[in-house]
Amino acid sequence: MTNPSFPEAKARKQIDRMLADAGWVVQDRADFNPAAATGIAVREFPLKTGFADYLLLVDRMAVGAVEAKKMGTPLSGVESQSAKYSDGLPDIPPAWRKPLPFLYESTGVETFFTNGLDPDPRSRQLFAFHRAETLRVWVKKYRAENPDSEPPLTVSERARLAELEREVRELKLEREFLGKAAAFFAKEYR
Length: 190
Known about the structure:
Layout: H1 7-21, E1 25-28, E2 39-47, E3 50-58, E4 61-68, H2 79-87, E5 102-106, E6 111-115, E7 124-126, H3 132-145, H4 155-188
């Protein structure tokens, strides 16, 4: 984490508190445990485009990011920086969709939010961070209303799917064999 004497570090302490007040479990990157809670906010998460000040995960899936700025920084124009975080996500942890839909910019005093699922996404001022459960509801609602809009599977997801399909085929063959063997022995020992 940043040196606590820096102004942005003071803002991050306030942002940590605000996220915790909204029910998020705030973790350092080194202590990252995606199973710790429904909503995880990971500090200084490495991306392809740099580091996200906070990466937000709901149910182990990346859904958003927070750009932290020192107190007093005007947040107009910062939205483009959090959008870069949204586009630069690596394959792990998995993202619900790319680009990430829920983007925040905050100084710890002032917070703005952009919902990328809106038909006309734009930054809006908030008084608190949304709860992870709220973002989960929005994701489920969006999926229900837009079933064809799911992003394609990643390479690793396709590989895992192929592996699971192979396992299912093998289990079906084993079940068929065991059924025939049971019928054979039942017939033999009558």
